[in-house]
């Protein structure tokens, strides 16, 4: 498949590709999801948050003494059914949880796009959910980063008092450890975020964090999808601090490659990667930064994950094509592939 066919192939294929993003509250799921939508184009990507599948509203949770992280506080069976419907290309009537009121709004009709992101506290909790999701990402900021992010967002955007957020964070810790954190073991990629090695001020004032992408090993690489980072501008044009490091890690018995960025990279360093993603997605310009500017480590991580997602989608397409050729018919949408790329 020539690279420029990617968007057309996705648009014409019946396959609904589901990306799952799991992590604790305030860990950057929504922020990352918006970035991926921007990279792939709003017309191709839609998002569902699993918060909409809470079983109880805020008042009921208080009365029952239950946190939203407990699986029994969520309608995971309905989420499974709805994801299966969407994967089969059918519309659903989606519940809506309103974070402003802490109550449910009336359900809304929701139709699948060819790339669907499902983000929330529990997207990988059940085997059926895991089977429906094609690419699984777990976001895992350091506790200090998560605390700063969560407090800022809940106080400034959700109208909570600081003490309320702090108390709730304490109350939620056991359920986080029990139900949310273990989902990390199912992820194809994990993003870890720490304060920058160039100082906490760099993080808090300039959004510069030390970001590590930990990925399961690729068993097959797709030739069309080229991950090029240019060493010349890296070595000669940069006037700001940056760091790139690669290490091998063993996480829960799985061999993972850990790629860490910190600081800011000159845009020329990742220009080829940006162009490659533009050709693949036909979304252009992928302008995370103006010419001559700098990308933060987090933005570079977003680009690399977009590249990994494209790689996975093309891998699935090549599998669908093979089945089509063997059977003389399309394999259809409901087919969930269990093989990893
Ligand atoms: N990559 C990031 N860089 C800088 N700040 C971030 C990043 N991701 C999240 N944040 C901050 O954390 C807050 C919570 O992030 P959000 O994406 O809403 O988390 P979640 O959806 O996991 O609850 C955001 O409002 C933002 O201030
Ligand atoms: O843990 C979360 C997940 O949301 P997010 O990941 O977006 O923070 C929220 O606390 C619940 O959804 C309840 O919402 P609320 O606390 O508003 O009642």
TrEMBL record:
One of its GO terms (molecular function) is phosphoribulokinase activity. GO terms for biological process: reductive pentose-phosphate cycle. The keyword Transferase applies. It comes from the Archaea. Keywords: ATP-binding, Calvin cycle, Kinase, Nucleotide-binding, Photosynthesis, Transferase. InterPro entries: P-loop_NTPase, PRK, PRK/URK. Belongs to the phosphoribulokinase family. This is phosphoribulokinase. It comes from Methanoculleus receptaculi. The lineage of its organism: Archaea, Methanobacteriati, Methanobacteriota, Stenosarchaea group, Methanomicrobia.
């Amino acid at each position: 498949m020539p690279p420029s066919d990617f968007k057309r192939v996705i648009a014409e294929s019946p396959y609904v590709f589901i990306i799952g993003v799991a992590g604790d509250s305030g860990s950057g799921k929504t922020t990352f999801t918006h970035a991926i939508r921007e990279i792939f184009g709003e017309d191709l990507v839609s998002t569902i948050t699993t918060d909409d599948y809470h079983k109880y509203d805020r008042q009921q949770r208080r009365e029952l003494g239950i946190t939203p992280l407990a699986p029994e506080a969520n309608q995971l069976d309905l989420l499974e059914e709805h994801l299966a419907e969407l994967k089969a290309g059918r519309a659903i009537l989606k519940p809506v949880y309103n974070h402003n009121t802490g109550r449910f709004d009336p359900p809304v009709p929701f139709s699948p796009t060819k790339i669907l992101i499902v983000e929330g506290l529990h997207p990988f909790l059940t085997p059926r959910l895991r089977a429906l999701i094609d690419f699984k990402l777990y976001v895992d900021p350091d506790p200090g980063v998560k605390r700063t992010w969560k407090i800022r967002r809940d106080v400034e955007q959700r109208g909570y008092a600081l003490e309320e957020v702090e108390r709730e964070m304490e109350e939620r810790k056991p359920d986080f450890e029990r139900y949310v954190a273990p989902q990390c073991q199912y992820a194809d990629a994990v993003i870890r975020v720490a304060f920058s090695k160039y100082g906490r001020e760099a993080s808090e004032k300039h959004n510069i964090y030390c970001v590590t992408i930990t990925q399961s090993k690729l068993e097959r690489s797709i030739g069309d999808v080229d991950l090029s980072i240019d060493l010349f501008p890296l070595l000669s044009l940069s006037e700001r601090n940056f760091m790139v490091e690669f290490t091998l890690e063993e996480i829960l018995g799985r061999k993972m490659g850990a790629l860490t960025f910190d600081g800011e990279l000159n845009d020329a360093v990742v220009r080829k990667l940006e162009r490659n993603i533009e050709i693949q997605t036909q979304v252009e310009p992928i302008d995370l930064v103006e010419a001559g500017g700098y990308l933060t480590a987090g933005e570079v991580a977003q680009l690399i994950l977009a590249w990994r997602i494209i790689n996975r989608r093309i891998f699935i397409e090549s599998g669908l094509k093979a089945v089509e050729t063997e059977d003389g018919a399309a394999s259809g949408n409901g087919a969930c592939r269990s093989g990893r790329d």
